[in-house]
From TrEMBL:
HAMAP family: TruB_bact. It is an enzyme of class 5 (isomerase). Belongs to the pseudouridine synthase TruB family. Type 1 subfamily. Keywords: Isomerase, tRNA processing. Residues 23-178 form the Pseudouridine synthase II N-terminal domain. This is tRNA pseudouridine synthase B.
Length: 303
């Protein structure tokens, strides 16, 4: 069994829980997820099965789309609704639509983020949440992320109350913490804030519309129709240019040899080589040999 199942992860489960359950449902050990979703978050979580696990990192690195509810009221230890309150402001607040949209525009593009203490980012070989649970505060690395789109989804022209909430859509790069973005939005508005709710609506080329729940996957497996949920590896590679292998390089590519670089690699970081639209290898520019390319991933079962 090889391919990618676009799973809809339900709230209350970890990404590892999903992998564990799918191994039992599909009767296979070669199952891997493509980026952690917190237990309190639901949404798109592509799962790689069999040889598709080779490209799990591509899916992890792909851009994501989220819909989040921002609460302008208090900050928490985890930067979401599940954490303990750190700072709270209960006074009446009033924001115009224009004010909020101005803040969202200021946080669009390349921004700096410091990961929350309750996160899986590693410092000195140890995950930040392990330090946090031990009551230890450590210096966290600030990093650059890209917010491609940050839009206000609510129609209201005025937002008033002690706890002002509004929904946003975020299209962002790998490594973006929406929890931290919620805090940054609050800071720009002059108040403590946290992420109240979060749903991931897309991950790379996978969206909510083509997802299956664990229950649906189990039903398809039992009925012998699991192919209805399995998407081919090529689906996840469709954002990269595809080149049909010609006879003169057929053997070399199947053997994973270093070759003169393809012209497409001047504009793209990866090129998919295949036969009859089935991926055989993904090539990248050679890191130490200018003008040459090397395989990054191989799919040897394609003849």
């Amino acid at each position: 069994m090889n391919g990618i199942i676009p799973l809809w992860k339900e709230r209350g489960m970890t990404s590892h829980d999903c992998v564990f359950k799918l191994r039992k449902i599909l009767h296979t050990k070669k199952v891997g997820h493509t980026g952690t979703l917190d237990p309190g978050v639901e949404g798109v979580l592509p799962i790689c099965i069999g040889t598709a696990t080779r490209i799990a990192e591509y899916l992890t690195d792909a851009g994501k789309t989220y819909e989040a509810v921002i609460s302008i009221s208090r900050t928490t230890t985890t930067e979401d609704a599940e954490g303990e309150t750190v700072l709270e402001n209960t006074e009446m607040k009033s924001f115009s639509r224009a004010q909020i949209e101005e803040v969202l525009a200021s946080l669009t593009g390349v921004i700096s983020q410091t990961p929350p203490m309750y996160s899986a980012v590693k410092v000195n070989g140890k995950k930040l949440y392990e330090y946090a649970r031990a009551g230890q505060e450590v210096e966290r690395p600030t990093r650059q992320v890209t917010i491609h789109e940050l839009l206000l989804l609510d129609d209201a022209q005025q937002f008033d109350g002690q706890d002002v909430r509004f929904s946003v859509r975020v299209k962002c790069s790998k490594g973006t913490y929406i929890r931290t973005l919620a805090v940054q939005i609050g800071e720009a508005l002059g108040y403590p804030a946290h992420m109240h709710e979060l749903v991931r609506t897309a991950s790379g080329s996978f969206s909510q519309t083509n997802c299956f729940t664990l229950a649906q996957v189990a039903e398809l497996m039992e009925a012998g129709h699991i192919d209805e949920a399995l998407l081919p590896v090529e689906h996840a590679l469709r954002d990269y240019p595809y080149v049909e292998i010609t006879a003169d390089v057929d053997k070399q590519i199947h053997n994973g040899q270093v070759l003169p670089s393809h012209t497409l690699l001047t504009e793209h970081d990866k090129v998919v080589f295949g036969k009859n639209e089935k991926a055989v290898a993904v090539y990248i520019a050679h890191p130490t040999k200018p003008g040459m390319m090397k395989p990054d991933k191989m799919f040897p079962n394609v003849n």
